[in-house]
Amino acid sequence: MQSLWNDAEAATCADDPLALRVYTSRLLGREPSLVLHGGGNTSVKAEVANLFGEREAVLYVKGSGWDLATIEAAGFAPVRLEVLQRMAELPDLPDPEMVRAQRAAMTDPYAPNPSVEAILHAIIPFKFVDHSHADAVVTLSNTPDGEARIRALYGERVLVVPYVMPGFDLAKTVWALGRDLDWSRLEGMVLMHHGLFTFADDARESYERTIALVSEAEAAIAQAGPRLAEAAAANPDLPNLARLRRAVSRARGAPVVVQWDRSPGAVGFANLENVADIACRGPLTPDHVIRTKRVPLVVGGDVEADVTRYGEDYRAYFRRHAHAGLTCLDPAPRWAVWPGQGTLAFGASAKEAGIIADITAHTRDAIQRAEALGGWRALPEADIFAVEYWDLEQAKLRKAGKPAEFAGQVVMVTGAASGIGRACAEAFHAKGAAVVGVDRNPAVREILSGPAYLGHVCDLTQPEAPAQAVAEAVSRFGGLDVLVSNAGNFPANLRIEEMDPAVWESSLALNLTSHQRLLQAAIPFLALGHAPAVVLMASKNVPAPGPGASAYSVAKAGLTQLGRVAALELAPQGIRVNILHPDAVFDTGIWSDEVIAARAKHYGLSVEEYKTKNLLKVEITSQDVAAMTCALAGPLFSRTTGAQIPLDGGNERVI
Predict the structure, then answer these.
(1) pTM (predicted TM-score)
(2) Which is nearest to 169 in space by CA: 120, 230, 104?
(3) What domains can be seen in the chain, in order of their start residue?
């Protein structure tokens, strides 16, 4: 563990305690083995002037919902220090009441809720306090003789606190231990199975105490010589991956995105002979249970039966520990161990799946290191249950808003680097979907970049390319729910007697055959998807063709007929197939300003008149087509298949 302190960076905020607190908090947040995705919390004590000009002591403590890696000054809740310290003296304080009391003591009503550890930060008699969930420290504590190891390593330099439920109970325990304690001799405090606190009146000293204590723990683990297992992955089992995703989605009551880790470390862990035992002893820290549940799914031969058994086991776990007033959460796993294939993370979004995957990676390494130290021993399940069903966590779940329309769904859009395809990809992404954008333009990788995007480069006219694109989508996100088959071009206008055979064949290859091959490759995975739907992008030229466009019109007519037959064939599998007929969508690559001006002149119209030469006198944009595409793939049209919908502002010939 290396200190990331930089004198020049720190000098820019040396005169502002809160700015310095932001700086060192971000230093902690940069290191995943110290804190992960919202974990840990930090604080600083300062004196500020109130409304009446009086000086009062305030604790700036990390607010709920903020991440140390990116926290700003606005992410710290200012709470009156004296109130927090007096709260520690109360004989009892239910956590919901504690949260209300902390909020009432804030000097800024618009700041986020203070951390549930605010009282604990307040009673530690130092200006700066840093709390991390350091992997190495927690790994040592999660062994059969963990407390003895911690005491032997740090001696009297740290206060060792047996595991206590976070919140008021933990603060009360530390307050009792610290009343007669000489805090000046301490460098930190280890909360068993929970994490590390360090503190000092100097920001750098507090931060670097964390670095030093964690480094000692890392060195102690290294002396045991743990070897992290590694193995090569077997051939990807995409059909069972999609079946597993469907089973998990059904158990959760909503579609999930899968992040599949096939790295040597993930596969090596999954291949351990005793993985079903060691992986199911509990999480690295109780905080992780909110993200990962207590144990993973261990995949065997029948993935659907495995998920069913997991649900039965989870409900039995709930019954063992539940009390009146609790409602069982969904019984779906959040991560899985799959021998030969690696580990899987299941999230309601690509972001959530990524967070769970990160926690999983740290957990599997910690398990193996603890095994080398005598055995992995997490907290008893009753303690884990208490955090999973904590009043404060239940309140967060109750406040959770309605998920986005396509949350958890996987959408593939072809021709996604520009025009209608790009607009569709962005629209689905904005509505919560994980989107695979396919295009032969390499720029699609940068255009569609982010955790919920995958830009796949290929030429769909190549025979194997469609199947490869589908396989890439399933590998990346676990399955396929919606296919927007949009890739195409508009060949040069040629009358039939002038038709170049190469133009004809090229149009059929891209505008028809590539769609058939893509649909063929996608059907087995759509059949395993959530509310599966196909939208084929045809053209106004199907119901109302024009002269000189036979190569294009015939291909789009064939695509339309393909969609009609597909609607008939795929309905028994619950797959809806609908067709859009856009016209005059001028904000696409085939319509340059010069071409539009020339066409307008040909009709004796202004450019504006030409763009709106339909019955409704409106311009049709890529975003309009994208909105209709989302509607066709969503619940609004869940009872519709085989439909052909014009999107042209009204055309006399079509009508």
Answers:
(1) 0.94
(2) 120
(3) 7-223 (3.40.225.10), 238-399 (3.40.225), 410-585+620-647 (3.40.50.720)
